[in-house]
Design a protein that fits this description.
Elements lengths: L1 H5 L21 H11 L5 H10 L1 H10 L22 H13 L3 H13 L13 H11 L4 H9 L2 H6 L19 H11 L25 H10 L3 E2 L21 E2 L9 E2 L5 E2 L5 H13 L4 H13 L6 H12 L9 H10 L1 H4 L14 E2 L2 H11 L3 E2 L6 H6 L34 H16 L6 E2 L12 H12 L6 H13 L3 H13 L2 H4 E2 L1
Antiparallel strand pairs: 1-2, 3-4, 5-8, 6-7
Helix pairs in contact: 2-3, 3-4, 5-17, 6-7, 6-13, 7-8, 10-11, 13-14, 13-15, 14-15, 19-22, 20-22, 21-22
């Protein structure tokens, strides 16, 4: 696999591996692969559960769960100054990822947060982020239109991209509506820069050039349509037409600051004069949702985050068709879209034992996923002072601090051979070495004073090292470890003395291998 060639192999208290139910339709490999795509990673218990209930029932159960939360933070720190400490929120995020029940909702919420970016680099107040995260959590299985509206009116986004306190222009004063949100709203969150065919390929126009989705006039008019919204009024503060930043509650419209003239927006739609700020927003949402380009644009990114960096045009097309119509005439149904992504023949093609790996399929475990996956597999306990978010930061992904509105890495990033590989944008020789250091620390030391792991399920039974290697293969590598890696793992274990040392050596080789770094 070309992606694997970029990497290199760096030198459950849950008890024994659960027995598979007699009626299970899924193989160990199929269940583990699915959980690497739909959850923060497989565990022996979650593999057994999925094999017992099947994918459809598992999805329905996950759609019904909404159990994880992030703790609200004080507005002010103990010293009376603004509270910029996101550590408690980051810690809670990883606690949820490693131990939470609503695994699919969490994974989808994280994917959406990487598409609809707000960064603490700019929006610094810690109390802004739990409410922002809940918008992804609560809308993850709803309709994409609801996601678009919720994020447009979110307080954190209002600050980050200047949607809040965006007033109508005043010709006499030489002012105009701020275009920042309107531009990123279309470019990054909904339709992109280029019109797309259903399979994600660019629509080509005159002289074989890609057809743009919008021009500057549409940006300007969309910005005008989105004027008039401000922050909620903070306790003890007198309400103003432009309230100061405050992140508890909901944004509301101040009609005197809204541009009520007509506007020509996306798709040639005319927003009529005289509408309220809410009506103009609804007009913009309706016009955007009517754009066929949204379906492949959004579908491709969701596929990239959950399943593979380089989905085929046919895969994109199949998911986009469900985005456009869930079978009941509904556009943007997230449950139907996610089901299509995770059950698509391309996603499930590698499920069968002995299936030949597709050299262009899969994606790298980005740091947040890498940390959560290893700790889940090792049945970790994250205590009250757990700080594994620092490890993700050292691997190149500081949770809630993407460098820009383009997120931690761009969905368009490619390797030198033009293969799409977004996560590799934050992969370097230093972070590669850091990955090995993290694995070493987990196995031979401790990440912090509060995080522990259990190697008990991987300890060999006497001289039987093959069962230990099989357990590692089952939990971490979809029961698909290559013969070369199996030999390397076995050799490392054989060279060690004592059951614990053998398990540590075997796990180190497996978890620093290129086969583990890439989710296939």
């Amino acid at each position: 696999m070309k992606l694997l060639a970029v990497l290199f192999i760096l030198a459950a208290a849950l008890g024994p591996r659960p027995a598979k139910a007699q009626t299970a339709a899924l193989t160990d490999r199929a269940a583990a692969r699915f959980l690497d795509q739909a959850a923060w990673g497989p565990t022996p218990a979650s593999i057994a559960q999925l094999e017992q209930v099947g994918i459809a029932n598992w999805l329905n159960a996950q759609f019904a769960l909404n159990t994880s939360d992030l703790p609200d933070q004080p507005v002010l720190a103990a010293n009376g100054k603004a509270n910029n400490n996101l550590a408690p929120v980051q810690a809670a995020f990883f606690q949820n990822a490693v131990t939470g029940q609503d695994q699919l909702r969490q994974r989808v919420a994280f994917a959406l947060s990487q598409m609809w970016v707000v960064s603490a680099v700019t929006t610094k107040y810690a109390y802004a982020f739990p409410p922002y995260w809940r918008l992804f959590r609560d809308n993850a299985f709803g309709n994409y239109r609801d996601i678009v509206k919720a994020l447009t009116l979110s307080l954190a986004m209002g600050n980050y991209l200047n949607m809040a306190n965006n007033n109508k222009g005043n010709a006499a004063k030489g002012t105009a509506a701020n275009e920042n949100y309107a531009r990123e709203f279309m470019q990054l969150f909904t339709i992109g820069l280029t019109q797309l065919n259903p399979d994600g390929s660019a629509v080509m126009g005159a002289n074989n050039n890609p057809v743009p989705t919008y021009n500057q006039s549409v940006v300007t008019n969309t910005a005008r349509a989105l004027t008039g919204w401000t922050y909620p009024t903070a306790p003890g503060v007198t309400a103003k037409g432009n309230n100061p930043a405050y992140y508890i509650g909901q944004m509301f419209a101040v009609e005197t600051n809204h541009d009520t003239t007509s506007k020509s927006i996306i798709g040639g739609v005319t927003v009529p004069a005289g509408q309220t700020a809410e009506q103009d927003l609804e007009s913009v949402l309706d016009a955007l949702m009517a754009q066929g380009t949204m379906a492949p644009f959004v579908s491709r990114q969701l596929i990239q985050h959950l399943v593979t960096s380089d989905p085929s045009p046919a895969y994109i097309g199949r998911v986009a068709s469900v985005f456009l119509d869930n079978g009941s005439g509904v556009r943007g149904d997230m449950k139907a879209i996610l089901t299509a992504i995770l059950t698509d023949p391309e996603a499930r093609a590698g499920d069968e034992p002995g299936a030949t790996p597709n050299p262009t399929f899969g994606h790298m475990r980005e740091p947040v996923l890498f940390m959560a996956n290893i700790l889940r597999g090792l049945n970790a306990t994250l205590g009250p002072s757990s700080a594994i978010y620092n490890n993700a930061t050292n691997l190149g992904e500081q949770l809630f601090y993407p460098a820009s509105v383009f997120s931690y890495f761009s969905p368009l990033f490619t390797l030198e051979g033009s293969e799409p590989a977004p996560e590799f944008q934050i992969y370097s020789t230093q972070t590669a070495a850091n990955r090995a250091d993290v694995v070493n620390t987990i196995l031979y030391g401790s990440l912090d004073k509060s995080t522990t792991v259990s190697l008990t399920p991987f300890l060999p039974n006497g001289t039987d090292l093959s069962s230990m290697v099989d357990s590692i293969n089952y939990v971490f590598l979809h029961s698909a470890m290559s013969s070369d890696l199996e030999q390397a793992v076995m050799s490392a274990a054989t060279a060690a003395t004592g059951a614990k040392a053998q398990a540590q050596a075997a796990l180190y080789v497996a978890l620093t291998s290129s086969e583990y770094q890439i989710v296939q």
